[in-house]
Amino acid sequence: MIGHGWCHECGPPRTLRHRLHSLILSNRAAEHLSLTDSSIAQLMHRCQNWFLEVGLGSCDVYIPPAWALGAVERDTLATTPFRYIETLRGLHDLQTDRRQHLPVAGFEADRWWRAIATRLSNQVNAWLAIRRQIPLRIAIHPYDWQYPLADQLEALLGRVDCYKTYPQSPGSHG
Hints:
- There is one protein chain.
- By secondary structure, the chain is of the alpha/beta class.
- A hairpin with a 4-residue loop joins strand 4 and strand 5.
- The chain is globular and about 40 Å long.
- It is built from 5 helices and 7 strands.
- It is about 35% helix and about 10% strand.
């Protein structure tokens, strides 16, 4: 199980980075980018508590919506109940403070300009994974088969011959 944000909606972008992220990638789903350090930690705790309250147990991995963690300090992250944080760059082990760069392919592109940017990014990241002989993270959302990148998603899934969970990934622990 993986924690993944709370509401997938954010307030109006306040920074240039947030505006660009919303325009190109997230369509204002990157809720962390409009939150403060303490608000991000509270959201992460609320996410973990939900899993516990419904009897699913705790999660080790947290993925902020649109892989955008926001302005949160390392010390604050250490207080959260998660061991791993996944971002666009890869996986961060909070216990060891070790970061593993892992390319990612995503398909939640609802507009033509996001589809163009995401398709290109996916191609580059798939090439990087092959070139560096490291896993490619494949992020699938429920409506991806209805979006413009469904053909790329199908083609990529057709090429998968094995998968790894985070404890099996190179460089991860646990």
